[in-house]
Amino acid sequence: MAAYTLALGSGLIPGGRIGDAYGRRRVFLISLAGFAVASAACALSPTADALIALRAVQGLAGGFMVPQVFGIIRSSFPPAATAKAFGAYGAVQGLAAVAGPLLGGALVEADLWGLGRRTVFWINIPVAVVALVLGIRVLPGSSAAVRTRPDVTGAVLSAVAVVLVLLPLVQGRDWGRPWWGWVLLASGLGLLAGFVAYERHVAARGGQPILDPALLAVRPFTAGLAASVLWPPSRCSPCRAPPRPPSPVRRCPDIRRPLGYAHRAGLHG
């Protein structure tokens, strides 16, 4: 669903700075708990409108989780091992992108206990509980050395730019690829360029940008961020499929692309 994808994409960059300020471990665990609660709410949603709104909440929680993973990896590994750690993360993400649609399609097909599509949301709950317990026990504390003033302008620019880019990519086929969809995409790319320029300006003046421009030179980071934004799991969600689809794989012909990103992110580099 578009609501999930847009919310996830818009939360990635602001979520990173929030983790820097308030602790990446804390923000990750809170976001994971929020994702689990939103998943349960999605499973119980009585109407399509409620489901759309709750999917947006779920996506925002997911968008806040992803950058904490990047931050925790960077702070937990020495520079020599960081690329391999990011590569391993990318590989797991790619495998999940392959296995997720297959498992989701199988659950919908099985129609366990007559729950239909709701099982793809309920399955998140035990996974999230296990992840929460493990996270509380083993994740190290991680945050920026100094808490700084939030970069509100950068947060707004990044969120609007990501939405403008993702909206035509996610909805373009349903819209029939209209000319104004391409205008939205071009506007979003232009705004992303302006966002990067603004962040570099903030950094040059000694401020704390919401996205450190130096990270853009780190190939594993940029590859992982691009894969997270452009191929989130929701693009292959069985919730978007018609009833009783012939094959989850045919619904998601691009599920192997994140694996290519993982390869280029440092597993063999």
Structure description:
The longest helix is centred in the middle third of the chain and has 32 residues, at 79-110. The protein has helices at residues 2-22, 24-44, 48-76, 79-110, 119-122, 124-138, 152-175, 179-204, 219-230, 248-251, 257-267. It has 11 helices and no strands. By secondary structure, it is mainly α. Residues 232-269 have low confidence and may be disordered. It has a single domain, classed as Up-down Bundle (Growth Hormone, Chain: A), CATH 1.20.1250.20.
Summarize the structure.
The protein has 269 residues and is mostly helical. The protein has a single domain (2-138, 210-263), classed as MFS general substrate transporter like domains (Growth Hormone, Chain: A, Up-down Bundle), CATH 1.20.1250.
**Strand tally:** 0
Give the averaged pLDDT, no decimals: 76
What is the count of distinct domains? 1
**What name does the CATH topology carry?**
Growth Hormone, Chain: A
- How far apart the termini lie comes to 35 Å
Which CATH first-tier class would you pick? Mainly Alpha
Provide the CATH superfamily.
MFS general substrate transporter like domains
CATH architecture term: Up-down Bundle
Q: Which range best describes the helical content: under 10%, 10-25%, 25-40%, 40-55%, 55-70% or over 70%?
A: over 70%
Major sheet, described briefly?
none
Order of helices and strands: HHHHHHHHHHH
Helix/strand class: mainly alpha
Radius of gyration: 19 Å
